[in-house]
Model the fold of this input.
Amino acid sequence: MTRRRPGDLRSHRWLGVSDLRSFGHRARLRQFGFDKPDWEGKPVIAIVNTWSDMNACHAHLRARAEDVKRGVLQAGGFPVEMPAMSLAEPFVKPSTMLYRNFLAMETEEILRSYPIDGAVLLGGCDKTTPALIMGAISMGIPSIYVPAGPALRGNWRGQVLGSGSDAWKYWDEKRAGNITESDWDEIEGGIARSFGTCMVMGTAATMMSTAEAMGLALPGSSSIPAADSAHPRMNAASGRRIVEMVWEDLTPARILTPAAFDNAIRVHMALGGSTNAIIHLVAMARRAGIALDMQRFDEISRQVPVIANITPSGKYLMEDFYYAGGLRALMAEILDLLDLSCLTVTGKTIGENIVGAKTHLPEVIHPLSNPLYAEGATAVLTGNIAPRGCVMKPAAAEKRFQKHRGKVIAFEDYNHMAREVERDDLDVTPDHILVLKNSGPKGGPGMPEWGMLPIPKKLVKAGVRDMLRISDARMSGTSYGACILHVAPESFVGGPFAFVQTGDEIEVDVAARSIHLHVGDEEFARRRAAWTPSPPHYERGYGAMFSQHIGQADEGCDFDFLQAGAGIPEPEIH
Ligand code: FES
Done:
């Protein structure tokens, strides 16, 4: 491909011509104190920054933007920092998932409406990664993703604590009366010790890793702890690289092929990654005009063993993974399963990027010959209550639930569930199946991470720590247990999951990939006829738009009008 010249840049239309409008643009740059040598003939690089005072996972990104700027300047570009919505997983309600598409739209439109030639995407907290990438794909200019990086290990009295996972674990111990209020307070102070994302293999680490595996981030970047000095160096290197990517016109469309997505899914499986990645990867693929469905995850899950020994499927944390060699080492372990010819942001192939990568701690990254789980990071089940599928992470569940038939306790919504599970007289046994309805994309709304339903208090006190739970919600990547999620279509829109009732029996067979409600056809039809829809949650604003246009889980929960299509013309400049 021929190298681009300054006159080919998008920004040339704003800054490089001679008319009244470009006079205004240049005059306003001079208002900042910039002058011609700052921009003339140089790619304008947007650093899309999702830093905010309410997002501890991104607390370092203000400083990191300066590192990226340093790299851009070194390579002869003109860096500009553009703030975008910060989706702090713990704070944003009702769910960050409600706003993933908002940030994707914001990213796309920032890049389109300003004189931007290339983008550096700074983020890492769960939905941020897919949102930034979805926006960049739709805009189509050269873009490089810079992972925020995981936080340091948590610590409580010398014991390692993992984000989320150990909060769920010790919360149950507290509910069971096994730890005190002051223990719990100490855990609160020790579980999040530095800036950076959750440091288990939750959604953040999964999405940062899969973005790198797809070729959208520098090799090895996703595993670097946020607080390590290698992180700002990686940021500067990304700044240098994006300038070259602009000259090479290395766009996401050249990187994101079906094989690149397959590589990402294979890495996701080898990591034992978060189920949320399924929704996000489907959404990203659709933005790129690639047909990807949930069945592909199931197919690849059967071929790729879990080799990363990281919580919640394993024992270690992201800091250990980095010391063990990080994602490059993991990819080198599954070399024969990857398509090594895929192009990446380096301008080289995945195969070239991982040459020489080695595992230093085999207890953290197992060899293929000794996997943690032979297969089954993700299973996609279908059946009469989930005709378009639902997902489970068998590796994170007690084995006995891989084939299980049990009586249902059904909850109509989250509040109903939250009240009932605390009742000491709830008629429940460890063999019961808990069902949570109205927690999907429209019903939640925003498909909240309610899928790891709390074990009823009565059972927790008796020592029960896992039981089968089914919902149309998602679950945090830090969660674990026998949770079946993403039931599609969701109950709120009248999917057959809406017709499950307390006292019914459900049978799950993971090996057969099936889920079945044992209710006769006539009774099923009667319940369907009696079902009445609830009104949408929002009548105005973004929520109303969300309710009207959001797709189901198997479609990636993108808005119908944002998926790949005719494209959007460049803005007129006059
Ligand atoms: Fe930000 Fe988990 S809360 S990554």
